[in-house]
Amino acid sequence: MTHPASYPLVGRSPDAVLFRLPGRDVNAAEFLRAAHDLAAALPPGANIVNLCRDRFAFAVGIAAAILRGQVSLLTTDRSPVGLRRLAERYPGLCSFADDPAVASPLPHRTLRPGTGPSGGEAANPMIPAGHLAAIVFTSGSTGEPVGHRKSWGQLATRSEDAGRRFGMTRSAPASVVGMVPPQHMYGFETTVLLPWHAHAAAWCGDSFYPADVRAALAEMPEPRVLVTTPLQIRALLESGLALPRLERVISATAPLFADLAATAERGWNTQVEEIFGATEVGSIASRRTVEGDIWRAYPRVRLSASPSEPEPLVTAPHAVPFALSDHIEALDGTRFRLLGRRTDLIKLGGRRASLAGLSRILTGLEGVLDGVFVAPDDQEQRPNARLAAFVVAPGRDPEALLAELRERIDPVFLPRRLVAVGELPRNDVGKITADAARALHDRLAGAE
Amino acid sequence: MTAQIETTEHEVAQLIVDALHLEMTADEIAPDAPLFGEGLGLDSIDALELALALSRTYGVDLKSDDARNPRIFASLRTLTGHIEAHRTR
């Protein structure tokens, strides 16, 4: 298969609506104008961190950076320590945000994209497929953030594929309300990039609480698509709010159980689909959860077996072939079953962290001799479950340690309990086995 | 019936502890300590859970009106005040 050597920044007609802000629609021509305006104001440098809170500002910021030839670094760790650590690896790193309240330890500008009255025609340049548009960070197994490079061709073709997979057409463009943050890979693809190359318009107002979502959906024309997570599906159902007609619900970030999917399908008279993906490769497959456990790869994504790799490789246009960290069974080149996930990696609130990495951060604190993070056994079944941590730190107050952790790790991974102990149950080779970790956790439960 | 229903801080503290499965008692939540960030250290998942509990118990539907929510969730005391002013049951 040969693929085009370049793709336009926006592959939609000038009058197509890309984003819907409260009380105002932004079409492709206006979006391009806003991106050109912002590009001129961005701080200089090869790499830039987009800290915009508003989804529209974030999207304009991504487009502006591409126009300027700058690489956007996307990270969910916005702590001063996290940003400074990024700057060590990317010298000269700058940041910008739409909200003056956002603080950054980097050279920083507050920039609000204009959505003013229409001016002249703004250029919609062809961007080479191999152009590095973004680097998206996840925490690696060591706790150090690992960057995943996103070529422009990969991002553009995947949006086209997603639009096809979810039935978005010129005559019936989808109205997408996303409940997930734009800097997370899933939210980045479905609520920021999708409208640039698929027949969709994304909502850019509040969409966190159930009441927000109902209001947002009511402002959007049909067919409506809700992009969400299992946790939020449950919250929406439990809220009992009547939602406007939903064509489709799309879920990702954590396994969606068939019961919950079926309840949502009945309750909202809709179709619930899950996206399978990873920050490393982006969205690559989907399934309608109630129909069973077989995933269908996106139109141009293929799975190929290789003698040297125990796991099938994922290939997609303009993307480096990739072996998934999840164990899958390929049924053919386009369909597969998910067999299991790696246990060190945990997901909470759509973020991913490695228990080993978190433990390393804990043991790196002053006065800490040993420490370990443990996840409850049923963490996957309870999306609102939280971690606990055990620490050997004579003379240190757990509260003070917790305050130091708060500066270094995402709030969802903060241990709900940080328990000081005399020593940790390490085996002969210094490892804490899964059984020992479970025993620690049980001891915690027994103590209540 | 127009009987005044009083929302007490203790009752809201108990709701927070129950809804979020916190490992503490209601009395341990200081009325003026921040609920998010410093203080109790709640996060965005908790915010969603708490919103559900408030809706079920008091009929108060939270929205993320940015100008308002930071103050509502500022402390147990401000949250109780918001419930008192907006409860429908």
Question: Top keywords for this entry?
Answer:
heterodimer; A: 448 residues; alpha/beta; Rossmann fold; GMP Synthetase, Chain A, domain 3; 2 domains; 11-stranded mixed beta sheet; 6-stranded mixed beta sheet; 11 helices; 27 strands; 29% helix; B: 89 residues; mainly alpha; 4 helices; globular
Describe this structure in words.
The complex is a heterodimer of chains A (448) and B (89). Chain A has 448 residues and is of the alpha/beta class. Chain A folds into two domains: 6-340, ANL, N-terminal domain (Rossmann fold, 3-Layer(aba) Sandwich), CATH 3.40.50.12780; 345-446, GMP Synthetase, Chain A, domain 3. Helix content of chain A is 29%, strand content 29%. Chain A has helices spanning 28-41, 55-68, 80-89, 152-165, 185-197, 210-219, 230-239, 258-268, 355-363, 398-408, 434-446; strands at 6-8, 17-21, 24-27, 47-50, 71-74, 94-97, 108-110, 126-128, 132-139, 145-151, 174-178, 200-203, 224-228, 248-251, 271-278, 282-288, 294-297, 302-306, 309-315, 322-323, 327-330, 335-340, 345-348, 351-354, 370-374, 388-392, 417-420. Chain A has an eleven-stranded mixed β-sheet, sandwiched between helices. Chain A has a six-stranded mixed β-sheet with strand order 7-6-4-5-9-10. In chain A, a hairpin with a 2-residue loop joins strand 2 (17-21) and strand 3. In chain A, helix 1 crosses helix 2. Chain B is mostly helical. Chain B has a domain at 31-89. Chain B has four helices and no strands. Chain B is globular, with a radius of gyration of 12 Å. The mean pLDDT of chain B is 79. Classes of the chains: A alpha/beta (448), B mainly alpha (89). Chains A and B meet through helix 6, helix 7 and helix 10 of A and helix 2 of B.
